[in-house]
Amino acid sequence: MTEDLSPAERYAAARIRAAEEATELASFREMYEFGLDPFQIDACKALEAGKGVLVAAPTGSGKTVVGEFAVHLALAQGRKCFYTTPIKALSNQKYSDLVRRYGAEKVGLLTGDNSVNSEAPIVVMTTEVLRNMLYAGSQSLLGLGYVVMDEVHYLSDRFRGAVWEEVIIHLPESVTLVSLSATVSNAEEFGDWLDTVRGDTEVIVSEERPVPLWQHVMAGRRIHDLFEEESDHGGRGSARREVNPDLLRMAREENSRTYNPRDRRRGKMVREADRERERRSRGRIWTPGRPEVIERLDNEGLLPAITFIFSRAGCEAAVQQCMYAGLRLNDDAGRLRVREIVEERTASIPAEDLHVLGYYEWLEGLERGIAAHHAGMLPTFKEVVEELFVRGLVKAVFATETLALGINMPARTVILEKLVKWNGEQHADITPGEYTQLTGRAGRRGIDVEGHAVVLWQRGMDPGALAGLAGTRTYPLRSSFKPSYNMAVNLVQQFGRHRSRELLETSFAQFQADRSVVGISRQVQRNEEGLAGYKEGMTCHLGDFEEYARLRRDLKDRETELAKQGAAQRRAQAAASLERLKPGDVIHVPTGKFAGLALVLDPGVPGRVNGHRGYEYHEGPRPLVLTAERQVKRLAGIDFPVPVEPIERMRIPKSFNPKSPQSRRDLASALRTKAGHLVPERNRRGRAAAADDREIARLRAELRAHPCHGCDEREDHARWAERYHRLQRDTRQLERRIEGRTNTIARTFDRIHALLTELDYLREDEVTEHGRRLARLYGELDLLASECLRAGVWEGLSPAELAACVSALVFEARQSDDAVAPKVPGGAAKAALGEMVRIWGRLDALEEEYRINGTEGVGQREPDLGFAWAAYQWASEKSLDEVLREAEMPAGDFVRWCKQVIDVLGQIAAAAPGAEGNGGSTVARNARKAVDALLRGVVAYSSVG
User: Fold this and answer.
1) Which of 2, 98, 123, 227 has fewest C-beta within 10 Å?
2) What is the rounded end-to-end Cα distance, in angstroms, of the chain?
3) Going along 508-635, which residue ranges are E strands?
4) DSSP string, 843-872
5) Helix 891-911 crosses helix 379-390 at what angle (to 10 degrees)?
6) Rounded to an integer, what distance in angstroms lies between the CA atom of residue 160 and that of residue 178?
7) Any idea what the Cα angle at residue 578 is, between residues 561 and 602, rounded to 5°?
8) Distance between CA 252 and CA 273 in Å, rounded?
9) Is residue 29 within 8 Å of 23, Cβ to Cβ?
10) Looking at residue 540, what DSSP letter applies?
11) Highest mean pLDDT among 208-212, 621-625, 730-734
């Protein structure tokens, strides 16, 4: 090829090669056995040119190579590099990778749990740690040249996303930012914002998977391709993807076999031949069992595989099912190697805890090459599973979707059992973004020629909808940024109020809001043109039809208002009747899911401490009842649209336990015997208020007297008038949205500033002593923690009692259990918890007054007492077996909550009065003792080797 070039061209090419070889990128490329992809080279060149970069690429494509080049540049320039990740497990993994490459003396780790070599030139940390360092003005920031933000798309996370924006906004200008993201559909918009706040930023997007992905559906014993063979399975070309006609035919056949109850009512009988055909057809299509799926994939050479099951219990059950089916995916040599690794990694766990942690059952599964992976597992157990999977010694993992968040565990095949998951409120279809993220684990770069995504056939499956999920690339990045109390005092302390306001206006949230205003403004202009046309259509030759239409609306509004007043009156009567209920009253629940006979166990009246979290009800009476069907439920006002009166009385045995099925069965049986025959009185409605209302009579008279009332085209004009009114209302709403989206973040900051000023945390640009304490407290309930310190709520508590109280600031139950109040320590701890709840109630009322609420992500949620007893027991040196048995909680959850309590205790120890060693406060000293008391056994097992 070079022979065809002229001498001048050969000389120019040689100069280019020599220039490239003199770059840091050239020496960096020599560290890898494989060549870099074009998007990696482009990003690295931009970095070496002094630009920031945003790299958006699919999972497993090698984005982290760009982050590692930033590390390489920092070391070459004698500067520091901070590598941030969203989760501790990912930090630990990246720390281990960098130690292997650069040596332990050059790499540090900071995750809240661990602090290793924190002054090293390369430090891996969670994003929250860097945020805290920025606010504290840490000396470690001196000499910082590069910050890598891995998984930066986490800023969409509604709970933690704000931290990413805080870091991006507050990093010194001299720091070059490397942002690594999953494929998002608005990468250019995010890049434009980074360009605004960080300076010159190169946006590099790669949508090409390094390993092609084939999509399948497994029905019965067969694995069907989702798309036809000649279409674009790998997602590399532009071929049109057609759904496999075999799958569409199977779906049609299944739908045609669906039983129709009307057939039976009409007297039609399905013929024997049809039934036989159906049986044969059913023999080909069914949802295969978990062991059957793994066995089939093993035979096809498609292991290792990750099966995503959206339930922890489902993951554990899947491992048991595979073991009961006799599945063995490892040979004898593999089993011995597994045992060696497991025993080495778990050597620090005391023998007496192994049985409690389910160690032996877990080890048996690992030896067979099968494991679960979910947040309820002990961190050490999860890390062992990850290590064995990467080594090929575990070949089938059943995991919840948390595994898809960054952990380096690529597989040859990913299996999705269902396309529906519980989102915390309801069962909802997974989104295209979630589908892409889950199936992105399929295909190991440098190992597999192709990856495979297998969806199991389910009754009612729509292959077309699945193809839509698999073919959609829409995953927009949406900011979840909101100011918090801690953020407000830290900003005012560093920049003053005015500059803080300006900084918040530079957030990605405000950037997106401002951009959306442009589209809304165009819609307002179109609406105004439409209003002119509608006004012409409602013109009446007899008079002012707009005035006539307004009278009609006023009449309708008045009738609606009276109807609402009547409904409110009935609700008030119903609430008053609920307040009169007593334990032992037999009532008839009029409507709702639990309508029918019920026995009142607890009236649930406001002003009394009730419920599983130990705080008062503010929304009215919520009686706890036993239904005739043996269910114990906490009812709400919505279940009682009309007043309720007791129809009988019953004695509730002292031995009654609402958690005992036998106890519920016996009492429900007695309830049916005692009152099952009684019929409640029907509630009669009185005369409607509208019949006697003077305002309605006046409006009707004015309508009849109006000139337009006699128009022959009155109803046509009225339809145009109604359209005009609706469009005018919509236009006003759009105008309010424009007003609302301008300076939204700053307005929220102003309200927070005003509340903190009233509580004497701030005085304009000055941060008070109380404010400086709040600046050291990070967390969802930062202001509540500060107020408790200020009021001396925790003074005189023992370390174990303090741990119990602090747990209420971090713990959130996965599922609420209104039936039973949580167990809490007695004495001083119980009194302190009660006082915390009262302080929260006062703050909640203040937030309502200043229009700061939970929907803005700023308000203080209700403290949850559900972990108080477990924290108290563990800090009191009780055994793991005893604590877990009483807490009814998986070991992984227990460890995670303990570590969060330890983190907040550390903050309290630093922020409490007398933390510097002077003053008479006991809180700081006992917080440190509580940390030591909690940091033992399973909680103390370090996750860094």
Assistant:
1) 2
2) 52
3) 585-589, 596-602, 609-610, 615-616, 624-627, 632-634
4) HHHHHHHTT--GGGT-SPPPP--TTHHHHH
5) 120
6) 20
7) 145
8) 19
9) no
10) B
11) 621-625
Spatial separation of the C-alpha atoms in residues 652 and 583, rounded to whole Å? 8
CA-nearest of 231, 229, 236 to 211 is 236
DSSP assigned state of 107: E
**How confident is the prediction for the chain on average, in pLDDT?**
81
At residue 852, does pLDDT exceed 70?
yes
DSSP state, 401? G
> Residues 246-260: what's their mean pLDDT?
69
Please provide the DSSP assignment of 216-250 as one string.
EEEETTEEEESB-TTS-TTS-S-PPPPBPHHHHHH
Cα–Cα distance measured from residue 590 to residue 719, given in angstroms and rounded to the nearest whole number = 40
CA dihedral over 400, 406, 412, 414, signed as positive or negative: positive
The Cα–Cα gap between 81 and 94 comes to 13
Beta strand pairing call for 107-110 and 122-126: parallel
Q: Sorting pLDDT into bands at 50, 70 and 90, what band is 82?
A: very high
Which pLDDT does position 804 carry in this prediction? 93
Position of tokens 């009021």? 791
Report the share of the chain in percent with pLDDT over 70.
Answer: 85
Q: How many CB atoms lie within 10 A of CB 743?
A: 17
10 or 476, greater pLDDT = 476
- pLDDT level of residue 613 (50, 70, 90 thresholds): very low
- Residue type (1 letter), 885: R
Q: What is the tally of helices (H) and strands (E) in the chain?
A: 35, 26
Q: Which long-range contacts link 570-576 to residues 24+ away (Cβ below 8 Å)?
A: 570/641, 570/642, 570/643, 571/637, 571/641, 573/642, 573/643, 574/637, 574/640, 574/641, 574/642, 574/643, 574/644, 575/620, 575/621, 575/637, 575/640, 576/643
Q: Which two tokens stand for residue 112?
A: 């809240």
Residue-level pLDDT at 108: 92
> Rounded distance, CA 146 to CA 46, Å?
13
Confidence category of residue 284, pLDDT binned at 50, 70, 90: low
What's the whole-number mean pLDDT along residues 496-522? 79
Calpha distance 348→346 (Å, rounded):
5
pLDDT of residue 255: 66
Residue 717, amino acid: H
pLDDT at 35 over 90: no
Cβ-contact 786, 774 below 8 angstroms: yes
**Which residues lie closer than 8 Å to 283 by C-beta, 6 or more apart?**
220
The rounded distance, in Å, linking the Cα atoms of 477 and 102 is: 34
CB count within 10 Å of CB 877 equals 10
Q: Give residue 440's pLDDT band: very low, low, confident or very high (50, 70, 90).
A: confident
Q: Within 13 Å, how many C-alpha atoms sit on residue 147's CB side?
A: 29
Q: Is 189 helix (H, G, I), strand (E, B) or coil?
A: helix
Q: State the Cα torsion 820-822-827-830 to the nearest 10°.
A: -110
**Contact predicate 312/400, CB 8 Å:** yes
- What pLDDT does 137 receive? 84
